[in-house]
Request: fold
Amino acid sequence: MKRIFVVFLLLVLGLAVYRAFHKAPFGQNRIGDVERPQSVSAFYLKHSPETLHTANSVTAIVVNFRGFDTLGEVTVLFLAATGLASILYRRKEEEEATEKAHLPGRIQLPSSTLVRTGAKILFPLILMLGIYVFVHGHLTPGGGFQGGSIIATGFLLMFITYKRFNVNHNVLIWLESLSGLAFVLTGIYGLISYGSFLQNTGWTGRLNDLISGGLIPLIYIFIGIKVGTELTNVLDTLLHTKPRRHE
Amino acid sequence: MILLVLLVVLAVVLLAAAVYATVQKDLLYAVLATGVVSLVLSVFFYLLQAPDVAITEAAIGIALTTIIFIITIRNTTRDEDKYSEDMINRFKTEEE
Reply:
C-alpha cells in the first residue's frame, strides 16, 4: 500500500515537472540582443563592461547591481556563525574538565611526516590562491565568497594536520567585524556622495585593469576577508569542541 | 558530441553516488559519497560555463561540508543503526 502511494506520488511529481518544463527552450539564446537590451540579463551584459568597466559580469551583478542582496548574504553567514559559536561555546573550566577525563575510543595519533610536510608547503600556497581569487574577483571567475572559502580550507588543512595549531580568536573576530563594518561604510559612502546605498563611483578605470570597476574590488576584498575569517572561526569552534560525556 | 557523452557519464556517476549516500548505513561512506556528488556537481558547473559557482561548490561542497560532517561523525557514532539504538536505549533508561 505504501509502495503504491509512493509510486503515485512520484508520477504526480513527474507530471508536474513535465508540464512546467516541456515547452522550455533548452539550449537556445534567451538573453536577446545585447546591443539593444530588451531583457534584464542583456542589460547587465551590456552595461557591466561598458559603464562599469568590469570584465566579469557575474561580479558586476553580485556586487554592484545586486549589492544590497550581497550585504544580506554576508549578514546571514555572520548570523549563522554567531549562532553556531553561541551553541558550542563552553567555558574554559568545563573544557579542561573533559580534557582530563580523556574520552574512550578516541585515537590521538599524530599525523605522519609526509602529511605534516605537505601541509606546511601547501598552506601558504592555498592562502595565496584564496587572496588571488578575491583580489581578481572583477577580472576572473571567483570573488569574495570563493576566495574566503579557499582560505578557510587552507586553515582546515592545518587544523586537521597539526593538533596544536591554534589561531588567535581575537584577531579573527576583529578582522571579521572590521571588514563587515568597512562594507557597510562603503555603502554609506555611496549614499552620501552619489545618492543611493552602495552606489558605485564615477571613476571606474579601464576594462581589464587590476584597479577598475570602481568600488567593486574594494568591496570584494572586504567580503573575502570577512568570509575567510568567519569560516575559519566556525571550523575552529567545531574542531576544538569536545563532546560532553554521557555516562 | 563528446561534451554530451561526458555529461551523461557524469550524470550517471552523480546519481549513483547520491543513491549510495542515502542507502549506505555506514555514515562515513555516506558522507564521502556526498563529497563525490559535490565533486561531480562542480565539474558540471564548470562544463556548463558557470566557473564562479564551480569554485564555490569545490571549496564549500567538497572540502568544508564533508569535513564538518566527518567531525560530527567523530563526535557521535559511525553506524546509523547503532546510533538510533543508543538513542532509544537512552530514552528508555530516562523514562525508568
Notes: Chain B has four helices and no strands. Helices of chain B lie at 2-23, 27-47, 51-75, 80-95. Residues 2-95 of chain B form one domain.
